[in-house]
User: Fold this.
Amino acid sequence: MPSPVGHALGGAIVGFLLERRRTPRAVPLSAFAVVAILPDIDFLWGRHNMETHSLGAAVLAGLAMLMWTRGKNPRLALAVTLAWSTHVLFDWLGSDDTPPLGVMAFWPLTSKFYFADAFVFEAISRRYWLSNFVPHNAWAVAKEILILGPIVAILWFRKVRKGSERF
Ligand SMILES: [Zn+2]
Assistant:
């Protein structure tokens, strides 16, 4: 399960990919970074990796945005759905050491947990009392930046060259 840094980069990638030129109101990339972090809000009510970590929740978030914009910005709604989905994807691809492993990816169709067993991203430790807490998490965040940073950098460079606005 990546850190908020990795999730924010995932949201930014979606923002970069779906941006378009000459629209009246620009939505900052940071908004998509926040959307991509949002599924972890489930820590607050103790159902981590469950309903909010699903493609169903991603669709609901997009529908909420569609209603918020009164149907005028389906592209923005799609971007919200995709930014939320990157969180589900990254957690699925990441390490997990707390059962049930993985995420409830296809809620509400099924409450089964899905786990890629791919360990692309490290699990973020919340066991602050352990001696490797800081070095492990620092490595985890560095790995996220190493994997996702170049993608963000390329998209950023492309955007600067095009000089485009967002949404
Ligand atoms: Zn998560």
User: Anything to note?
Assistant: Residues 1, 39-40, 53, 87, 91 surround zinc ion (CB under 6 Å). Residues 4-162 form one domain. The chain has one domain: 4-162.
